[in-house]
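Cross-posted from the bioinformatics board.
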Amino acid sequence: MSMSGVETATKLPSNLVQSAYCSEIGRIDILMSFPKGMFPVSRLGRCLCGCVQLDIEFDGFGLDVCHCTNCQLQTGSPFAAFLAVPVDSMVASGPIKKFTDHATVSGNTVERYFCGECGSPCYVGVVRAPNTAYVFSGLFTETGDLTPKVHGWTSQKHGWTHIEESIPQYAEDPGLFPE
Ligand SMILES: [Zn+2]
Ligand SMILES: [Zn+2]
């Protein structure tokens, strides 16, 4: 290990580095985990039947949680948690079908993509923002690093749904302004 490598490691947050002593080379710093967002990650996803496969090269982990009635209707659940990813970073394959949703609370036309075999919701696109795909986080194989970033349309949330107070929440449009 070069000295420059050691110096780089010691600049990392101390909670991620554990020091050890080696009789051959002295003190060594071991990186215990990588800070979020440090490297692009490949995130894989699939529908219930496995016909739809998603492969996303994107290091985001913050979820946009939507409590709007139409997301409730599409998912059959009280809310939908999405990871917004650049469309260019995602490869989606399989028998994907699209429902064009004109009757949204935001007034935006939303394209709701789902598996044509098993019906799993897969991702959502806002027509005026064609470069962003909102992927339903339930499809991902690895979910340990995902965390809610913002809650939107809480005016329509189910009564029993509890939201952590530390997370921003908006009664209506959360103002995401996707591209
Ligand atoms: Zn399927
Ligand atoms: Zn929604």
